[in-house]
């Protein structure tokens, strides 16, 4: 059981503050997703965790069975780097055999395992093709297999879905879910919000090296969009102002003559809202509208950019004065 904790870690490249005082904990068996726009600091963070670079500040604490570790044990993790690293002039089979043996898998077992994974990811007929002949997506799948072959306790995947078509993205999602069920811990970075929403137990949203939000989807929703919105359909037409006048309503958006989006007042309960609505009209629909991760992400990154701009302007005014 591998515990990973980052405490206030920072990393700069010259003038670029790539990661700024970021903290998080990854529990064993969890899928932890790093999200953020290009250049947010996701790969920089991952490179520190796998020990390719060191934090300028802060610390990374690793523990296995309650024993502290100075670095991740070689065979306990699989790492899919951003700049993929297999041999292009070797066949799929040769690449995977080499990696498998390097990770200590028995030669005879390895043959079967390679075939099993390649069958699962539709690569069986490519086994004896040179990697360089494969499409980008198929090369990506070979890279993924090279990370999971030795059944590591921890998978660190920098953009595992990039270059994959929707069918293969779905296959990888199913595989990652299965691995989690078997107890594997997964740290991944991704830009595919719809997939992350279905996969991640916990997420860290970064922008320009800083934390924007962290937690489960429900916690992130609570942090970024605490208002409760409902879709309300009425059996008859009603003027928007009649709904707005209800004590449990803070905002109303009219969608059609009989359909509205209603925001619950902060101090009101859902049952109060329902009571007040049914007192003025017959309801044909009443359902909660929950913002998806994509929507939350765009709003949060946009707000964070505005915040950074205004603090930069404040600083430059301060400096001018
Ligand atoms: N080796 C390096 N030397 C100089 N600057 C770097 C280096 N690696 C990253 N950076 C800079 O650090 C910042 C964070 O980059 P990083 O690659 O960590 O972002 P990312 O979130 O992984 O982006 P993407 O989604 O585009 O892969 C960027 O401004 C990048 O230009």
At a glance:
By secondary structure, the protein is of the alpha/beta class.
Plain-language structure description:
The protein has 321 residues and is α/β, with parallel strands linked by helices. It folds into 2 domains: 222 residues, P-loop containing nucleotide triphosphate hydrolases (Rossmann fold, 3-Layer(aba) Sandwich); 64 residues, Alpha-L RNA-binding motif (Alpha-Beta Plaits). It is 38% helix and 28% strand. It starts with a strand and ends with a helix. The model has no long low-confidence stretch (mean pLDDT 93). It binds adenosine-5'-triphosphate. Adenosine-5'-triphosphate binds next to β2 and α1.
SSE blueprint:
Elements: E1 2-13, E2 16-26, E3 31-35, H1 42-49, E4 57-64, E5 67-69, E6 77-80, H2 92-102, H3 107-120, H4 136-148, E7 154-158, H5 166-181, E8 185-189, H6 193-199, E9 202-207, E10 210-215, H7 217-224, E11 229-234, H8 240-244, E12 249-254, E13 259-264, H9 270-280, E14 283-289, H10 293-320
Parallel strand pairs: 3-8, 3-9, 6-7, 7-8
Antiparallel strand pairs: 1-2, 1-4, 4-5, 9-10, 11-13, 11-14, 12-13
Helix pairs in contact: 2-3, 7-10
Number of domains: 2
Beta-strand portion reads 25-35%
Strand order of the biggest β-sheet = 6-7-8-3-9-10
CATH topology of the largest domain: Rossmann fold
| Helical percentage | 25-40%
Q: What is the count of helical runs?
A: 10
Bound molecules: adenosine-5'-triphosphate
Q: Provide the low-confidence segments as ranges.
A: none
Radius of gyration: 25 Å
Report the end-to-end length measured between terminal Cα atoms.
Answer: 55 Å
**Broad shape:** globular
* CATH classification, class level of the largest domain: Alpha Beta
Whole-number mean pLDDT: 93
In terms of structural class, how would the helical and strand content be classed?
A: alpha/beta
CATH superfamily of the largest domain: P-loop containing nucleotide triphosphate hydrolases
């Amino acid at each position: 059981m591998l515990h990973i904790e980052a405490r206030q870690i920072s990393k700069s490249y010259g003038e670029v503050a790539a990661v700024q005082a970021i903290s998080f904990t990854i529990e064993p068996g969890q899928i932890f997703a790093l999200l953020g726009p290009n250049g947010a600091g996701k790969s920089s963070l991952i490179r520190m965790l796998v020990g390719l670079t060191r934090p300028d500040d802060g610390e990374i604490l690793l523990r296995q069975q309650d024993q502290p570790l100075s670095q991740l044990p070689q065979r306990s993790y699989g790492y899919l780097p951003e700049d993929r690293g297999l041999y292009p002039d070797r066949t799929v089979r040769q690449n995977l055999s080499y990696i498998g043996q390097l990770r200590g898998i028995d030669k005879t077992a390895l043959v079967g395992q390679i075939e099993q994974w390649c069958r699962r990811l539709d690569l069986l007929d490519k086994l004896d093709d040179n990697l360089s002949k494969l499409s980008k997506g198929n090369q990506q799948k070979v890279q993924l297999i090279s990370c999971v072959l030795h059944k590591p306790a921890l998978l660190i995947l920098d953009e595992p879905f990039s270059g994959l078509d929707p069918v293969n993205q779905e296959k990888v999602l199913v595989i990652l879910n299965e691995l989690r069920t078997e107890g594997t811990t997964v740290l991944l970075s991704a830009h595919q919000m719809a997939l992350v929403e279905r996969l991640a137990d916990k997420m860290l949203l970064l922008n320009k090296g800083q934390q924007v939000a962290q937690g489960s989807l429900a916690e992130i929703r609570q942090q970024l969009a605490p208002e409760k919105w409902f879709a309300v359909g009425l059996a008859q037409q009603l003027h928007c102002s009649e709904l707005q006048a209800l004590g449990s309503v803070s905002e109303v958006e009219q969608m059609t003559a009989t359909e509205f989006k209603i925001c619950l007042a902060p101090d009101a309960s859902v049952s109060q809202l329902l009571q007040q609505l049914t007192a003025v009209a017959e309801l044909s629909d009443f359902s909660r509208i929950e913002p998806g991760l994509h929507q939350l992400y765009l709003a949060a990154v946009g707000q964070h950019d505005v915040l950074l701009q205004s603090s930069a302007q404040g600083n430059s005014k301060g400096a001018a004065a």
